[in-house]
Design a protein that fits this description.
alpha/beta, 153 residues, five-stranded parallel β-sheet
């Protein structure tokens, strides 16, 4: 009998905001100033889903966060990482991501973390795409994200 191919494991981008969607310590009017460029890249990879890993996830509802994005990209935000607190800060963002990836439906998921804080991840973490806190998501990072997503496809 003909069997359907097993579903492909998802590809996820874990997204930080401060230092990625906008420079750290920028004026509130400049929040999400890099959003258009990020969305341009994401539109080239319609199967890639987004998980919010920013501390903003603790202050805002996911529905409110989605509204900051264009409707087509906001619809691809599937969740947010859990908040990890075990009294230590070592690689905390990485551990939050690993906990999120523990869901059975995400078995085998491929992922990239867009972040500006390398200390939140183990040394030379291959999944981390590091942004400069002051440049945030610029043309260099956009090109690198595009290349990495193509390599995962």
């Amino acid at each position: 009998p003909w069997m359907d191919a097993p579903p492909r494991p998802p590809t996820l981008v874990f997204l930080d905001f401060d230092g990625v969607m906008h420079p750290v310590r920028c004026h509130v009017n400049d929040h999400f100033c890099n959003l258009k460029l990020f969305e341009e890249v994401m539109r080239e990879f319609p199967g890639v889903q987004i998980v919010i890993a920013s501390t903003w996830r603790e202050a805002y509802l996911l529905s409110d966060i989605r509204q900051r994005f264009s409707p087509d990209i906001g619809a691809r935000i599937i969740g947010k990482t859990p908040t990890w607190d075990d009294g230590t800060d070592e690689h905390i963002r990485y551990r939050e991501i690993r906990q999120y990836l523990g869901q059975p439906k995400l078995a085998g998921a491929k992922w990239i973390a867009l972040d500006d804080a390398d200390f939140e991840f183990p040394d030379r973490c291959p999944n981390l795409l590091l942004c400069d806190s002051n440049q945030a998501f610029d043309a260099r990072v956009a090109a690198e994200l595009r290349a990495r997503l193509q390599a995962l496809d």
